[in-house]
Amino acid sequence: MNIVVNGQSRSTEAGTVLELLSEYGLERKMVVVEIEGAIVPKEQWAQTALKDGLRIELVHFVGGG
Q: What pLDDT band is residue 65 in, cutting at 50, 70 and 90?
């Protein structure tokens, strides 16, 4: 399916938010996921299905000083 992630068109085999995060290596990171303007709680990542054409924003936090 084709989705838009952080403004970039991308093809993915991921079926859920958690699978998409795994493709990016972010499944264990501190991440905020927004789909079509709505924040998806971490507890729902494994159950939130992706659909063709979705607009997704992924923001991950980097610590340090």
A: low
Q: Is the pTM of this model over 0.85?
A: yes
Helix (H) or strand (E) holding 58: strand 55-60
**Residue 37 and residue 11: Cα distance in Å, rounded?**
20
How far is it, in rounded angstroms, from Cα 29 to Cα 9? 23
Q: In terms of Cα–Cα distance, which of 21, 19, 22, 16 is closest to 6?
A: 21
Are the C-beta atoms of 47 and 16 separated by less than 8 Å?
A: yes
| Contacts with 53 (C-beta within 8 Å, 6 or more apart), sequence order | 2, 3, 4
